[in-house]
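QA checklist item 7 of 12: single-chain prediction sanity check.
[x] sequence parsed
[x] length recorded as 621
[x] structure emitted
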Amino acid sequence: MRRSQRTASRSEPSPPRRVLLRWLGWFLLANVGLLCLISIQYFLNADLPQTVRGRVFLALAVPGHWALLGLLPYLPLAALATLYPRRRVVMASAVTLYALLALVIVIDARVYLLYRFHLNGMVLNLLSGGAVAQILPVEGQVFAIAGLVALALLLAELLMARLVWAGVARGRGRLGLPALGLMALIVLGGQFAYALADARQDTAVTRIVRFLPWPQMVRMDNALDRWGWVAKRARLAIEAPTGERRLRYPLEPLACRPPREPLNLLMILIDGWRFDMATREVAPHLWRLSQDSLVFERHFSSGNATRFGVFGLMYGLYSSYWNGFLGERRGPVLVDELLRQQYRFSIHGSARLTSPELDRTVFAAVRARIPLETPGEKAWGRDRQITDDFLAFLGQPGTGPFFGWLFYDSSHAFTFPPDYPRYFSPILNGINHMALDNQYDATPFLNRYKNAVHFVDSQVGRVLDELDARGLLERTVIVVTGDHGEEFNENRLNYWGHNGNFSRWQTQSPLIVHWPGKPPRTYSHLTSHLDVAPTLLRDLLDCTTPIDRYSSGRHLLDASQRPYLVIGNWDNLAIRQPDRITVFNELGHADVVDQDYREIPGAKPDAAILGEIIKEMGRFR
């Protein structure tokens, strides 16, 4: 009798696909509830929103965020249930995947409470590679607790799976579609609420998403303008966040004394300006300027993409802080001090200052009185326009020092006026990025880039000539650099442009600093974009506060040994050392390569350096 019962049990047909899919939907919703409970840890030390709109957004954002993350395992599980509708297989897979997701969130919450940032490639590498024990005092008790937490999560998932199945089997899951529809409305409502708050500069709302790991939020500025929800001019004012700020920046108020005879400051950025493109042939005006300036020949950007290069240059902080400062609409202390010392501002970007969001970070304090975009279809036309605008500013009456900021874009767009001389040939007439490979002849493409840089140099030459004609050249500190480099497959690894790797081609830029009163000199020690802001604060604005109170950089003239530089982008972070570059991706994988970007067999990340960097990434949070 028992054998026949076992045989009947084995031959019992699996439930229909629709029943399994219904169970998966309810199991997803149950896990959203579990993740909401786990996420309470993120808000233990947080100043929760005091406004009604902030609380409403919080109520929508938290379940909506976990619903989106919960879709990551749900989608492959739904495919499995459709193609192979076996209850035990589907349920076991679902329990395993959602238990793993919950465990990752628990770990991330603990990391956030310790360091105030979420899991990233470096931390994952430490956790998976065993190096964490060399940095943190991890004892056997901690591993035992971690094991118990993992077991508890697995048991919780098993219990939820059984309870949900019992309800579905009894026909109590037929409200699944309305429930999923309600969850979809919560997700969409949270996204729309964020987009509206972002357009209105409501930082009391936008800053909330920073507490949640890996948020994916939409922006709808233009659409909201068209619909009449937000007036464009109404978005220019910055609303300070209510309650305590979560960023501890600076760590103490700056002590600065305005000099009796202050110098002007002009910062010129050239998009994609590479370290070997400051020569007499490619950039003659800037080359002449360099002959009477401080030249840093081993200078690296803080990122291989614009937002992270400009962020490091203006804040002196790692790229990992970008999202935090964007969420709080917090500008750099450099701009704050320039305002305090009553500098007149002339800020001009050829590309829009809203993408990347420099208007909501670097220039948040002056957003309402600077042009956010420059008219013109072509980059070369906009480059001419920002030059004209700055020259017009120089001709305006005004007292006190000025701060000029020019960001040229033709070198990024590989463009120049049709009638501009072709100084470098042969030249590529049109760029077909699909044709770029290891067999492609890079010379015509590189020549087009050189001609574009030459054109930008001509615009910079106009600025320098006007400063000289007005007697301002010897009263103005001029900083000229690039936001990142540009690669044309120099390492024969089929890398083109930027944001692709962290080789010197994509990260090393010229740095020319014309400083009245300082004799010209070329420096060969290692410098970073992180060093520019603290140097200006110390020497130009006479700030005596220790640099480590507001920056991760050092003084540009500090030639002491520098064991590494940190360079970042959206998903990756690189540690540049004299003999290697260690690159961490978002999944925690670490590649250790030489200076030519070839893998170093058997090389592993330096755990001690990782520990220093991780602490620095949380020091201002």
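[x] summary fact logged: The chain is about 45% helix and 10% strand.
[ ] second reviewer sign-off
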